[in-house]
Amino acid sequence: MSFLIRVQLPDRPGTLGAVATALGEIGADILSVDVVERGPGLAIDDLVVELPSGRLPDVLITAAESVEGVEVDAVRPYAGVLNTHRELELVEDVAEEPARGLAVFTEGVPRIIRAGWAVVFAADGTGVHRLTASSAAPETRIENPPWFPLARATVLDGEDTWVPDTWRELGTELAATPLGKPDRVLLVGRPGGPMFRAAEVARLAHLAGIVSVVLPD
Fold first, then answer.
1. Inter-CA distances, 93 with 62, 118, 180, Å
2. pLDDT: is 160 or 215 the higher one?
3. Is 138 exposed, middle or buried (0-12, 13-18, 19+ CB in 10 A)?
4. Angle subtended at Cα 30 by Cα 29 and Cα 32, rounded to the nearest 5 degrees
5. What's the N-to-C CA distance of the chain in angstroms?
6. Which residues contact 64 (CB under 8 A, 6 or more apart)?
7. What is the pLDDT of residues 7-27, one digit of tens each?
């Protein structure tokens, strides 16, 4: 089974290699590595690893944190290895079918930023409603969220009162970005975490800004 493990590690040569060695010793196979964020002396990396059947994911935490200075932010099941640099391909897909562009974009976003689901909301005379949603998006409806309309991309508080109970029970991390205009908003959810980092939100906003140019009004 594959898992996504997010680690904080000292940004010094050899640390990631030491983590890879520690994971290899418990039989975990690293399938991909994505740099999420870099800061002074610190790196945040996402590792997709395959664990032999019968092994509990807790062993991933123990192995990774056996390396000095390494902390595990989150571990969650992950359905396959995904290419995290598919922005251009997604934009091209939207441009090829602008009439279906919004649906194509919403379905593709979670695969790029490693979220569980995505939903696009818009407003009309009766309030806020869904325009489209990815296949894994929950059916739960939200009404008049306090952050709508949205001026800029941001991380949302997953424990706020507007958040449906089922989302909170799953520990869903949330981020949102305007999609060309403040009253058309892309909301993405990551059940069970990890939290959205500033670099991920900036990447989401950049992608939404590019795609909104080719989307019909």
1. 41, 17, 18
2. 160
3. middle
4. 150
5. 42
6. 5, 7, 19, 22, 23, 70, 72
7. 999 988 889 999 999 999 999
Q: What is the mean pLDDT of the chain?
A: 89
Count of positions (residues) in the chain: 217
CB distance 74 to 173 below 8 Å:
no
Pair of tokens at residue 178: 């305007």
Dist CA 143 CA 148 (whole Å) = 10
**H helix runs in 123-217, sequence order:** 165-169, 198-214
Neighbours of 114 (CB within 10 A): 20
Q: Which residue has the tokens 């996504």?
A: 4
Strand partners, 186: 120, 177
pTM: 0.78
Q: What would the pLDDT profile of 163-216 be if each residue is shown by its tens digit?
A: 999 999 999 999 999 999 999 999 999 998 889 988 899 889 989 998 988 887
User: In the 3-class helix/strand/coil scheme, how is 137-152 assigned residue by residue?
Assistant: CCCCCCCCCCCCCCCC
Q: Is the dihedral of CA 97, 101, 104, 105 positive or negative?
A: positive
Q: How confident is the model at residue 83 (pLDDT cuts 50, 70, 90)?
A: low
pLDDT tens, position by position, 115-143: 999 999 998 777 889 999 999 999 988 88
What does the alpha-carbon distance between residue 150 and residue 156 come to, in Å, rounded to a whole number? 11
